[in-house]
Amino acid sequence: MSEVSTFRLYILRAMYVFTVVGLAIEKLPALLYPASLSPGDSVILSVLGATALLAVMGIRYPIKMLPLLFFEFVWKSIWVLIFGLPLLLSGRPDPSVSFGGTETLIACLVGVVLVPLVMPWGYVYRQYVKAPGDRWGKQVSVSAPQPPASSVSRSTGAGL
To answer: Domains in the chain: how many in total?
Structure first.
């Protein structure tokens, strides 16, 4: 099995650092001082805070944390396609709207563009598409049948 190149590992690490730094700059103040957050905004900030913490793990384990980048790509793509672009096309994106304005659209578009560029697609194909999935049920161990104890003792001469 071919490994992911060292260069690609550094690119992945840079993406995780970019995620951590971006979320720390943009969202950390609201996480530290959550006084006036709506319940919906508090959920969003909690998910983004968890994403930042998991991205820190991605710096050390860039391959093991690839599902985090998948998650980033998918949720940002959904937001851009279903919410961001319709707002933009209607001429209504408002930068002052929390989690729904032009700033959010740009941040999501950056993720939608960068994640596919840094993803090691050969590895992803081998590990997530081509490789067999994990089992669904309890693992059954099959061992070779053992001869009865009496026949073993006679054939070896033991016990006489």
So the answer is: 1
